[in-house]
Please model this.
Amino acid sequence: MLNKLEAGNKIYRYYNNLINVGWFTGYIINLSPDRKFFYIRQSRYASHLFLVEMAQTDFLPSIFKEGSGIKIMARLIQHDINGMKSIKLLPLYAERAAKSQLPDIDDVKTEDQPKEKTFNPYFSYNLTPVPGSAINTVLVAGFIDTLIHDTHENGEVKGDCLLMGLRTGLNDVLPVRIYGNRAASEFNTIKRIKDKGKFQPVAFDTQLRSKIIKIDDPEQGELNHIISYVHSSVITTMDPNDCEEHFLGTPDWFLQVQKEWLAQQTEIQK
Amino acid sequence: MSNFSLQDWYLSDSQIKLISVIKHHVKAILVTPGAKQLNSLTWMFENHQILGQVSLQDCCSALEISISLIRIRMQYEIYANNLNLINLFNSQLPEVLSEEILVHVDMDLNALRVAKLIWNNPGVNMEQLIKLTDSDIGLSIHLEKLNKFIAKQENQYYLPGRNISNHQNINWAKCWSFYD
Model:
């Protein structure tokens, strides 16, 4: 992980030459024994539960325990769950979160309850902690890979939900969901342009969300999976006169992606 | 359809004529096997422009409906009538369908190829499918992946685009998001 000085350097916000960073606060739950995996929890609902995986050479510093508050600056990485695309967070920098940055959840269980013998100003002098709310900010840019309407179980199209695959690297496609009544018109706007919007550059300044998806497994019955996605109400296509902030340099991998796609297209047309 | 007349839908006379052209070809596909059926299948699924004949594309643009909707619905009707139309026409998958399939099968081109084979050969059975793909490697896996789009009737495969076996009462037009 980076140190505090390095974490302030904006160059680390870029991944594959595109901006790809998020800031999250919350409580640690389900910390794995090897301190490699945990979930960040921001509310009592599954929609604010995000999987964090430390880099291969990293582990979570021992100042953080199950249930303690944490603030991370993280990369958004593609994560496959049973053939579905999700997002996992790769922390670049982790620090203790201020109480004002942490959400108020009643049933947070810490690893060890506050000991009565040690000094605690809140308990000793009967002080009230400041109210807080969680930080959940995502800055991510990429190219539209796929864009379709979500469908109901019976096959009918959901008019208010689009599923987008956001290409952020040679092998990285992040799931983005566009919600709201404007989804259908956003869809038509994108699909009317040349190539039906394929590889249209877009940049999202929005939030990360999760949802539970139920899958019927023939052997293990119904399984619940937590799928994270970038949540937006609009497809923010880039302004051609003002897109420097999203790029660190030329994304060299893009030409290969495009070449593969063109080869694929001729294959399909055969 | 017989309970109300088309005039009630505020259609012009020429539009009603175009509907009857489409109806004629649908009937030919579903009822009369032979040369007429072959001709109508080509008219319905291939994009050839025959001189002096109104094409499906012309009908659809005049009626302001998507050509893909008609074709996908035709596949459903072929399935509902349990027809077996192998090697009679050769067309592309509608883009709405192929895009949705590609997202669903995680960009697996081989699965899309199987889907296209079933689209072009509605009513194909397993042995014929193995012959057409030249191998059976992964065929059952592909078919399982395509489960959401395929309908099966007595060992025959169809590609109506939605697995309608459990849901008889759905609005077909609401199932697709067209962008022609």
User: Anything to note?
Assistant: The mean pLDDT of chain B is 83. Chain B is about 50% helix and 5% strand. Chain B has one domain: 6-165.
